[in-house]
Automatic annotation (TrEMBL):
Region (Disordered): 1-37, 51-78
Keyword terms of this UniProt record: Glycoprotein, Glycosyltransferase, Golgi apparatus, Membrane, Multifunctional enzyme, Signal-anchor, Transferase, Transmembrane, Transmembrane helix
Reactions listed under catalytic activity: 3-O-[beta-D-GlcA-(1->3)-beta-D-Xyl-(1->4)-Rib-ol-P-Rib-ol-P-3-beta-D-GalNAc-(1->3)-beta-D-GlcNAc-(1->4)-(O-6-P-alpha-D-Man)]-Thr-[protein] + UDP-alpha-D-xylose = 3-O-[alpha-D-Xyl-(1->3)-beta-D-GlcA-(1->4)-beta-D-Xyl-(1->4)-Rib-ol-P-Rib-ol-P-3-beta-D-GalNAc-(1->3)-beta-D-GlcNAc-(1->4)-(O-6-P-alpha-D-Man)]-Thr-[protein] + UDP + H(+); 3-O-{beta-D-GlcA-(1->[3)-alpha-D-Xyl-(1->3)-beta-D-GlcA-(1->](n)-4)-beta-D-Xyl-(1->4)-Rib-ol-P-Rib-ol-P-3-beta-D-GalNAc-(1->3)-beta-D-GlcNAc-(1->4)-O-6-P-alpha-D-Man}-L-Thr-[protein] + UDP-alpha-D-xylose = 3-O-{(1->[3)-alpha-D-Xyl-(1->3)-beta-D-GlcA-(1->](n+1)-4)-beta-D-Xyl-(1->4)-Rib-ol-P-Rib-ol-P-3-beta-D-GalNAc-(1->3)-beta-D-GlcNAc-(1->4)-O-6-P-alpha-D-Man}-L-Thr-[protein] + UDP + H(+); 3-O-{(1->[3)-alpha-D-Xyl-(1->3)-beta-D-GlcA-(1->](n)-4)-beta-D-Xyl-(1->4)-Rib-ol-P-Rib-ol-P-3-beta-D-GalNAc-(1->3)-beta-D-GlcNAc-(1->4)-O-6-P-alpha-D-Man}-L-Thr-[protein] + UDP-alpha-D-glucuronate = 3-O-{beta-D-GlcA-(1->[3)-alpha-D-Xyl-(1->3)-beta-D-GlcA-(1->](n)-4)-beta-D-Xyl-(1->4)-Rib-ol-P-Rib-ol-P-3-beta-D-GalNAc-(1->3)-beta-D-GlcNAc-(1->4)-O-6-P-alpha-D-Man}-L-Thr-[protein] + UDP + H(+)
Gene: Large1
Polar residues bias (residue ranges): 12-26
Lineage, uppermost ranks: Eukaryota, Metazoa, Chordata, Craniata, Vertebrata
Family: In the C-terminal section; belongs to the glycosyltransferase 49 family. In the N-terminal section; belongs to the glycosyltransferase 8 family.
Topological category with respect to the lipid bilayer: Single-pass type II membrane protein
PANTHER family, alphabetized: GLYCOSYLTRANSFERASE-RELATED, XYLOSYL- AND GLUCURONYLTRANSFERASE LARGE1
Protein location: Golgi apparatus membrane
Biased composition (Basic and acidic residues): 27-37
Name of protein: LARG1 glucuronyltransferase
Record pathway: Protein modification; protein glycosylation
Organism of provenance: Serilophus lunatus (silver-breasted broadbill)
GO biological process: protein O-linked glycosylation via mannose
Amino acid sequence: SLADGKPVSLSPLESQPHSPRYTASSQRERESLEIRMREVEEENRVLRKQLSLAQSRSPSHHHSNHSKTYSMEEGTGDSESLRAGIVAGNSSECGQQPAVEKCETIHVAIVCAGYNASRDVVTLVKSVLFHRRNPLHFHLIADTIAKQILATLFQTWMVPAVRIDFYDADELKSEVSWIPNKHYSGIYGLMKLVLTKTLPSNLERVIVLDTDITFATDIAELWAVFHKFKGQQVLGLVENQSDWYLGNLWKNHRPWPALGRGYNTGVILLLLDKLRKMKWEQMWRLTAERELMSMLSTSLADQDIFNAVIKQNPFLVYQLPCFWNVQLSDHTRSEQCYRDVSDLKVIHWNSPKKLRVKNKHVEFFRNLYLTFLEYDGNLLRRELFGCPSEADVNSENLQKQLSELDEDDLCYEFRRERFTVHRTHLYFLHYEYEPASDNTDVTLVAQLSMDRLQMLEAICKHWEGPISLALYLSDAEAQQFLRYAQGSEVLMSRHNVGYHIVYKEGQFYPVNLLRNVAMKHISTPYMFLSDIDFLPMYGLYEYLRKSVIQLDLANTKKALIVPAFETLRYRLSFPKSKAELLSMLDMGTLFTFRYHVWTKGHAPTNFAKWRTATTPYRVEWEADFEPYVVVRKDCPEYDRRFVGFGWNKVAHIMELDAQEYEFTVLPNAYMIHMPHAPSFDITKFRSNKQYRICLKTLKEEFQQDMSRHYGFAALKYLTAENNS
């Protein structure tokens, strides 16, 4: 094609000078065409030479953060130098080189602090992982809370070709605490200013993202834009899409100085090596000190200071096309960034209203965001084709354990579940609790799935102390739970409830894994191991704290038993005292727990003695005993081989007995099981013969393990099982 885009075809006759159709005019056209073709060939030769030189200058190792070819994106900078033969935008042309080296690592920095931001960053990461084709290295500047949450999440997520490094945000506070900031992001909203000091000195470039970002394309496209930087350009930014920096939003509105509309710092490309050489640290500090003398504080956190620096030094900035940061705050010009869905690259929910922001196309943007919010994160554990992952000890150990299992074993799925790593998001909601200073504090521990959510409010009304809950949910259910909790006055008024999401995977309910997760994340010296279907008596929390002192739990190995009862009535007038409970027992309104179907589970509690007891009394372990107990936080974990229904608590009580715990029944404590539909797992147990066979096999193996571990003392468990 020639420059006008029209194809030229030459017929065989037109190329022969002795043809009758050959004329003087066609001769001139042919000569003109030959000249133009030679010009095109020369342009192509120059272009190939340019690309060849660019490739020869680029190091081959992907950790150097250089890519071998140029970006195909439009923007201000060096687009002129590659105009010939290169098509801007997203179009794919024959012969176009890949924008980023295949297995090059892309570095991303995110500042994240607190419980809410930790939830937001997961959605951002999901959107990046969904589109990516390159290894990723996330640099997370996190406070103590976010680090605990995200370290566990990524460790259990086990996504190939993803590396995570944490940097202590609390240590950086002194670097920016001198800057007054009115923005809702607080002190953490200023920390992007100190990334040149915080990130490793050998890291040359990084993409910096806010937590309220959603990607709609491969992040490698943005990484490729670094190669369009020229001269002293060290910051890649999108123009601000609101009128904020124009200073005309309201009377006496006085924003920080900015170049025109200013720039938004939700998405930043940082050329770290050049910024360090330019003494960026000194540059932004001097600018901030000067402006604060008149401005007194920042309104938009780091963004104000970045813009003030750029106003003085406009050569620092490379302006990114605005589709790299479509800003969805009120009254923005974001609609000018896209004509079609395919134009969208990055969506930025930079309004305090977040999803409730006003925008003509907000429904579309909201649905895109919700897609990633509720997307099954397990599906993102995919290997990158042709890019070997770094060796991961946990992953290698898991593969080794799984390889040792016999896939032809009829109980293979049961055995496999023991080694399944479930993605875990700790403290899904805000948690704030300091244990009582007298070292008597007790946390109620339980686990649940979506069908038991209705029990949460009732338990919170019955138990005022701290609670640790593990919830087994899908990604979509986790969002339903969040909406349910945020709509509940009872749950929102409680900050001492830790909600830990364990994401669904596999066909079994991993009941003992859930219990272990809830147990592990308590901050009190003692815990009450309960189940979600039970309501504790009113005042049980204070009663247990007194019992802990009375029975010297700190210095003795005791398990304090809270006697369990049940009602078959969905509407129950809950007994307010032991006397009232005994009266309801006599009337048949209440029963001892599982009296009709599994007497052995709680018979050793000795309910006949409990009726008249006024002091704690000791009971002995018996086969199939599974009481609900209060123990020290250092008690053994539950055995993960037991999943779904059957033997999950029995095995734990057996282990407590093997470790010589003393079982003591509390005379004035009780809990009541509320009725509910049978669980899916108990239905499987009752209807599936193979399920029961496998459970029996697992029981026998557990007892053999007990014998090996505890020796002669554990023989009684085999004997008791044979006699039962």
